[in-house]
Amino acid sequence: MGQEKALLKCRRAGEGVPLWRLQRDVLRAAGAVEVFLSVREEQVWRIEAEGFDGQLLDAIEVGGPIIGVTAGLKRAAHGHLAVLAIDLPQMDAAWFSSLWAECGDGVGCVGRRSGGGLFFEPLAAIYPKALLLPAREALVRGEFSLQRFVAAAVAEGKMRVREITHVEIPLFENWNEPDDARW
Where are the alpha helices (DSSP H) in 91-173? Predict the structure, then answer.
């Protein structure tokens, strides 16, 4: 991207707010009681990011998002953890409400694109705290793929799958290139 995605301004919310604030507000609007910011220590902008219940510093540089998911599961005081990637500016609270309706005691929910397969949307999902041990074990084995992790959780009945409708696909458009930051 060439710049910090979290600091990109999104006009969807009016004057243009940084993505970190937009995503924080989406989770709060969805009913999240605790909201954490998962960042790397060298991301100095994090110092001024207010409105979070804490920060989760990535302990392993090359581990990817499963590092933050694992840290969030460990730190969460409640039975579930909602995860929302910073680069999904079209995501809304209604998505998380629909996922929450599918969750149960010790069971989370993840969206999957039409066509099935292993293409889950693990960065706009709700994970049960029961996945903390399997997440830690995956890290110890050096298995950093959230797709495989979620697939195993689904197979074990710890995650339910909600098929993403054609209308919902725009919620998952992400900003990966500088030209994507157009909203």
Answer: 93-102, 132-141, 146-155
Read off the pLDDT of residues 83-97 as tens digits, 9 standing for 90 and up. Answer: 999 889 999 999 999
> pLDDT class for 155, splitting at 50, 70, 90?
very high
Q: Kind of pairing, strands 120-128 and 108-112?
A: antiparallel
Tell me, rounded to whole angstroms, the distance of Cα 28 from its chain centroid.
Answer: 13
Instruction: Please state whether beta strands 108-112 and 159-163 pair in parallel, antiparallel, or not at all (unpaired).
Output: parallel
Mean residue pLDDT across the chain? 87
**Structural domains of the chain ordered from first start:** 5-178 (3.90.550.10)
Q: What is the pTM of this model?
A: 0.88
Residue 82 and residue 72: Cα distance in Å, rounded?
9
Question: Amino acid identity, residue 171?
Answer: L
Q: What is the pLDDT of residues 46-62, one digit of tens each?
A: 888 888 888 888 766 67
37 backbone dihedrals φ, ψ, rounded to 5°: -110, 120
Residue with tokens 């995503």: 23
- Using CA of residue 76, residue 175, residue 31, residue 45, what is the dihedral sign? positive
Residue type, 43: Q
Rounded Cα distance, 21 and 2, in Å: 20
